[in-house]
C-alpha cells in the first residue's frame, strides 16, 4: 500500500471517528446542541484530533447531509443540533454511512 493510500485511509477513519464523537457530544448535552468551537476543543483536548474549525465545519456539513444534525451559522461558528437520526445512531438503532458505529454496550 502506498503512503498516499495509507494517509487517505487514515483520514477517512479519522473523519468517521470524529463524526461519532460529535454525535455523542451532542447527545450528552441537555439541549442536544453545541457550537463548532466547542466541538473543535473536545476533539482536540479529549480525543487527540487536532483539526481546525473549517475541518469541523466540514464534518458538521456531512452529518447535516445525512440528516443526523441541523446546522445554523452564528457568526464565525456554527451551532449543531442533534436530530432524531443522529440520536438513533448513537443508540445503535440505525447506522449512518460515514460515521463510526458506537461500541457495543458493556454488560
Polypeptide structure, described:
This protein is an alpha+beta fold and 107 residues long. It has a single domain (3-90), classed as Arc Repressor Mutant, subunit A (Orthogonal Bundle), CATH 1.10.10.10. It has four helices and three strands, in the order H-E-H-H-E-E-H. The radius of gyration is 14 Å and the shape is globular.
Q: How would you concisely characterize the structure shown here?
A:
By secondary structure, the protein is of the alpha+beta class.
Features:
107 residues; alpha+beta; Arc Repressor Mutant, subunit A; three-stranded antiparallel beta sheet; 3 strands; 14% strand
Topology:
Blueprint: H1 3-28, E1 33-35, H2 36-47, H3 53-65, E2 69-74, E3 77-82, H4 84-90
Antiparallel strand pairs: 1-3, 2-3
Helix pairs in contact: 1-2, 1-4, 2-3
- Strand order, largest beta sheet: 1-3-2
Contiguous helical run count: 4
Shape: globular
Please indicate the count of domains. Answer: 1
State the end-to-end distance. 38 Å
Determine the mean pLDDT.
Answer: 95
- Report helical residue fraction: 40-55%
Q: CATH first level: which class?
A: Mainly Alpha
CATH topological fold name: Arc Repressor Mutant, subunit A
Helix/strand/pairing class, anyone? Answer: alpha+beta
The low-confidence runs, each spanning 5 or more residues with pLDDT under 50, are none
What is the makeup of the main sheet? 3 strands, antiparallel
| CATH architecture classification name | Orthogonal Bundle
* Radius of gyration over all CA atoms, rounded: 14 Å
- How many E-type strands? 3
How do the helices and strands follow one another from N- to C-terminus? HEHHEEH
Fourth CATH level, the homologous superfamily: Winged helix-like DNA-binding domain superfamily/Winged helix DNA-binding domain
Beta-strand fraction estimate: 5-15%
